[in-house]
Amino acid sequence: MSLLHIPAEHHVDLPAPEARSGVSIEEALAARCSVRRFGPGSLTVAEIGQLLWAAQGRIGLGGHRTAPSAGATYPLALYVAAGSVEDLLTGFYAYSVDQHDLVLLRAGDLRQEIAAAALDQEWIATAAAVLVIAADYGRTEATYGSRGKRYVHIEAGHAGQNVYLQAVRLGLGTTEVGAFSDRAVKRVLELPASHDVIVILPIGRLV
Question: Which residues touch 158 (CB under 8 Å, ≥6 apart)?
Answer without folding.
Answer: 67, 68
